Amino acid sequence: MSVVVVGINHKTAPLDIREKIHFPKEDKAPFQTLKTLSGVDEGLILSTCNRVEVYAATQDTKTASQNLSSFMAEYHGYSPRELSPYVYTLSEQDAIHHAFRVTSSLDSMVIGEAQILGQVKEAYRLSQEAKIVGPILHRMYQKAFSVAKRVRTETAIGSQPVSVGSVAVQLCHKIFDRLDNKTILLMGAGEMMETIAELLWKKGVQKFYVANRTEKEHFFKNIQTHYLSLEEFPKYLHKMDMILVSTASPTYLVTKTMMKKAIDDRKQNPIFCVDISVPRNVDPAIHRIENIYLYNIDDLHSIIKENYKSREEEALKAEVIVQEEVQKFLKKFS
User: Fold this and answer.
1) pLDDT in tens, 223-267
2) Is 87 left (phi over 0), alpha (psi -120 to 50) or beta?
3) How far apart are CA 215 and CA 212, in angstroms?
4) Residues noted as catalytic
5) What top-level class would CATH report for the domain 2-159+313-333?
6) What is the pTM of this model?
7) N or C end: fewer C-beta atoms under 10 angstroms in the chain?
8) Homologous superfamily assigned to 164-304
């Protein structure tokens, strides 16, 4: 039995491709389709803002690889040929090595970020609930989780916590020398937005508005916020110096029409939008509006590169650990 992974990520595919290949975690249908694929004995789907990967345990590597590629493309309305320039396929030792690196945050956009371990565990749980994880993938992921723990324990790769959210806040600070006099709208109330809110609050932001489907006072319990429903927030956009967006909505929440009215009401005072959602929640067309400045998750690369320099030595130590653990795993289960 061998392991195969087919995927796209932030290094192989631009945002406009990644957002179209995303599997929403509440969607159970992909798991049912995966079960039926020829050559796939076990399966797992990992879908985050920066990667979509489908893993399989198989006795026929070639058939499984072809069918996983077709599944990933055709489920989202693409032909395998259209998606092929962005797709990577790994098998056997390479697939296991890749899974360990991903779980240990060595393949992340932000090296050392802590969120990926939770995301992989959630992907494992959902795939297990769908009854497509069997003994091979179970063993591989239990080992991957222990490898990630060892990397965190034996290196300083996570000593200064970073995430896409913290990088977004660094971007805010690059845009504005001072944040304490800015009015900011946070759209979403997930883990990413909690990180962003806490970091902005520590940097002195006083005026927060929060737009979400439901009011979550407990979520921002230490921070004074003004709650807005998704129906009423457009009326407040003209008050905002900056808008940060991170939700699971499959559609645009902030439209060109909304932002055109907001900038007119502000007498052309600039508004900065940072959309780290995948799929995107801010219409990319708003960048054509004068005095609107839009950044998406792929625009954070320059800051991420700066951060990586300080983690490079620890990342190299982590790579050695992962390689050791791959060899141990193969020796035990070969």
Assistant:
1) 778 889 999 999 999 999 999 999 989 999 999 999 999 999 998
2) beta
3) 7
4) 49
5) alpha beta
6) 0.86
7) C
8) NAD(P)-binding Rossmann-like Domain (3.40.50.720)
